[in-house]
Amino acid sequence: MRTDTVVKNEGVNALLKVLGKVDAERFVALMLREPFDYTEWQYGLFEDKSIEEICQRAMEYRRNLE
User: Fold this and answer.
1) Which 8-state DSSP code applies to residue 36?
2) What are the residue ranges spanned by the domains of the chain?
3) CA distances from 14 to 5, 20, 46, 59 (A)
4) What pLDDT does residue 20 have?
5) Closest CA relative to residue 27, chosen from 65, 42, 18, 2
6) What φ, ψ does residue 57 adopt, rounded to 5°?
7) What is the pLDDT of residue 7?
8) Under a CB-based contact definition with an 8 Å cutoff, are residues 24 and 14 in contact?
9) Per-residue pLDDT tens digits for 2-61
10) Can you give the pLDDT at residue 65?
11) What is the rounded distance in angstroms from the CA atom of residue 64 to the CA atom of residue 55?
């Protein structure tokens, strides 16, 4: 199990890699500004998608990273 510090560092590095410095900072500010329940949010994230659609999008995303 990773420590909280390691998880936070990896999270920030992921944000920086995907969003860049400015938008990563903006994302953090947006998250702190509003009450946000990730668990509640993710329940509805894929409710209109089939497992096949989700799997296909995940495979396409993975291919684009390579």
Assistant:
1) -
2) 4-65
3) 14, 9, 22, 19
4) 96
5) 18
6) -65, -40
7) 94
8) no
9) 899 999 999 999 999 999 999 999 999 988 888 878 888 888 888 888 999 999 989 998
10) 81
11) 14
Residue-level pLDDT at 17? 96
- Which pair of tokens denotes residue 53? 């659609």
Rounded alpha-carbon distances, angstroms, from residue 29 to 11, 24, 47, 49: 15, 9, 28, 30
**Residue 20 in tokens:** 């860049």
Tokens (6 digits) for 5: 């510090």
Retrieve residue 57's tokens: 């999008």
* Separation CA 22–CA 29 (nearest Å): 11
Q: Is 4 exposed, middle or buried (0-12, 13-18, 19+ CB in 10 A)?
A: exposed
